[in-house]
């Protein structure tokens, strides 16, 4: 069991700001090349729609990447 001074030392430490770290990393790619590996040829809007509709789990990285492609390029 911790004594009171250890308890105080742990809970009075300055905390890091995770929001600043998240803001810096927000534009970094999550899984680069995930669509290119799953589609033959050039990525098109219809191929992205087909890939997204084939996914059982619509929240996985592939489905998100396909949706992102549709948002930005179609």
How would you describe what is shown here?
- The chain is mostly helical and 74 residues long.
- Helix content is 59%, strand content 0%.
- It contains five helices and no strands.
- It has helices spanning 4-11, 18-25, 34-38, 45-54, 61-73.
- Helix 4 (45-54) runs antiparallel to helix 5 (61-73).
- The model has no long low-confidence stretch (mean pLDDT 81).
In short:
With 74 residues, this protein is mainly alpha-helical. It is 59% helix and 0% strand. The protein contains five helices and no strands.
How far apart, in Å, are the first and last alpha carbons?
Answer: 59 Å
Number of strands: 0
* Share of residues in helices: 55-70%
Strand content: under 5%
